[in-house]
Amino acid sequence: MGCPNTIVPGLEESDKITRQNPGIVVKINKLDEEQIKQQEQNLRPFGVKSLYEKDEWRNRQIENKYSQNPELERLSQERIETVMPEVEGKRQFSMEEYNRTQPEWKRKVDELNPIRPIGKLPKTSSHKEMAMALDANKVKSGMVVTNRGMADNRHKFYIPNGTLVKTRLDIPAYKRFNTWVVSIKSTFLNGTKYGQTSHLKNVTFPVTEAERKAGMRIAAGDMPKSPYATMQGSWINTSTPSARAMASKALKSGEWVEIGMNPYRDVDFYRKDTGERIYSADEVIQIGPLVMAKNVK
Questions:
Q1: 135-169: burial string, b at 16+ Cβ within 10 Å, e else
Q2: Element (H, E) at 70
Q3: Burial environment of residue 19 by CB neighbours within 10 A (0 to 12, 13 to 18, 19 or more)
Q4: With 0-12 CB in 10 A as exposed, 13-18 as middle and 19+ as buried, what is 205?
Q5: Among 2, 71, 189, 286, which one is most buried in terms of CB atoms within 10 A?
Q6: Which are the contacts of 110, defined by CB distance < 8 A and separation ≥ 6?
């Protein structure tokens, strides 16, 4: 991660990164023996022996961001004052003003921060790395496996093919520890689960007016960066090696395009080759920050 844009469903990162001094940022504290025991029980199925191992790994991974492009931040704040003027001390979102100002806004963003495709397969995080990067409550919720025989319905869960799910990237894991984890929600699941990769069919990219408002506020620095946009589709149990092989072929295929989401650019998903908004796709493969979509509309 660095100056070139990294496209992420839910957030696109383009900040410079530098390391903090290791060993001083992440500490295990305010945990009693029972809490430590419980957290370690949740970590061990994924190969993490102790909280101290997790702590040391996190300190090695810690990365600190410089601010976004100052000119882009200034312009974004000016735009939010037009699209979300204050009325009696509260910002009111205007879809009409958003649509009116969007073409000129995209032109300015393209000048300051042009879209750059990833164009290659990124590293896939292991379950162990995911367990160390995710917050304790998320590790407790469990991870997804694509082989039914590996599921124990306590730490590892299997999602039947065709199940309607919503996926995005877990933002804290990659922002703090440069670890790419897919967040998966479904009425079939009890709580959010986490996966290495995702493969969806019959995909839509729904963005509500409330989510548009959130995207505007994030871009203007009016609220912290947080997930607000998801991909929705039918889950396909494709193993990580197979998903990587598919993505590798997709990068060379005219039927597939890289897609992304960046609230600084637009609150909708878009294709990276043209910048056009997209609303559906026949198929999507997600490998870390790389998201490939087939036959987008």
A1: ebebbbbbbbbbeeeebeeebbbbbeeebebbbbb
A2: helix 70-83
A3: exposed
A4: buried
A5: 286
A6: 275
Query: In the block, which residue shows the tokens 């430590």?
Result: 36
The predicted-structure confidence for 239-258, as pLDDT tens digits, reads as follows: 999 999 999 999 999 999 99
Please say whether the beta carbons of 166 and 231 come within 8 A.
yes
State the helix-helix crossing angle for 209-219 and 70-83, rounded to 10 degrees: 140
Dist. CA 68–CA 136, nearest whole Å: 29
Q: Is 180 helix (H, G, I), strand (E, B) or coil?
A: coil
Domain boundaries, given as residue ranges, for the chain: 1-297
- Residues 6+ positions from 24 with CB-CB distance below 8 Å: 59
Mean pLDDT of 176-195: 94
What does the chain come to in residues? Answer: 297
- Longest CA span, the chain: 58
Please name which of 46, 8, 64 lies closest in space to residue 288, comparing C-alpha atoms.
8
Distance separating alpha carbons of residues 11 and 288, to the nearest angstrom: 12
Residue 40: exposed, middle, or buried by beta-carbon count in 10 A (0-12, 13-18, 19+)? middle
- Top pLDDT among 82 and 73 is at 82
CA distances, 68 to each of 53, 74, 270 (Å)? 33, 10, 21
In contact, 222 and 129? CB cutoff 8 Å = no
DSSP state of 149: G
Strand ranges inside the chain, DSSP E:
17-18, 64-65, 86-87, 90-91, 143-144, 156-157, 164-169, 182-185, 193-195, 197-204, 231-235, 256-262, 266-271, 280-287, 290-294
Question: Count of CB atoms within 10 A of residue 214's CB?
Answer: 21
**Three-class SS state of 144:** strand
